[in-house]
């Protein structure tokens, strides 16, 4: 469950593409985010050769810098 999810749900448009950035956690059999950043983006171009694109369909972890 996302905090204030009713408000966020009202901002999400049908047939739009989004990137969700945040730390997921698993609780009560569901994945959730505490403070996700939701970025609206454009749809993927169907003419692009996605099979040969190494970044297509992957999830990349982002690590904070270590001092």
Q: Would you mind describing this structure in some detail?
A:
The model has no long low-confidence stretch (mean pLDDT 73). With 67 residues, the protein is mainly beta. The protein has a domain at 5-44. The chain contains one helix and four strands, in the order H-E-E-E-E. It has one helix at 5-11, and strands at 17-21, 24-27, 30-33, 37-41. 10% of the residues lie in helices and 27% in strands.
Short overview:
It is built from one helix and four strands, in the order H-E-E-E-E. The chain has one helix at residues 5-11, and strands spanning 17-21, 24-27, 30-33, 37-41.
The gross shape turns out to be extended
Which ranges are low-confidence, i.e. pLDDT below 50, for 5 or more consecutive residues?
none
Structural Rg:
15 Å
Our measurement of the CA-to-CA distance between the termini, rounded to an integer number of angstroms, reads 33 Å
User: How many distinct beta strands?
Assistant: 4
**Strand residue percentage:** 25-35%
Mean pLDDT rating: 73
What is the topology, as strand order, of the major beta sheet?
Answer: 1-4
Number of helices: 1
Fraction of residues in helices?
Answer: 10-25%
What oligomeric arrangement do these chains adopt?
Answer: single chain
Class by SSE composition: mainly beta
The succession of helices and strands, N to C, reads HEEEE
- Largest sheet, if any? 2 strands, antiparallel
List the helices and strands and how they pair.
Blueprint: H1 5-11, E1 17-21, E2 24-27, E3 30-33, E4 37-41
Antiparallel strand pairs: 1-4, 2-3
Summarize this structure as a short list of keywords or feature phrases:
single chain, 67 residues, mainly beta, two-stranded antiparallel ribbon, two-stranded antiparallel sheet, 1 helix, 4 strands
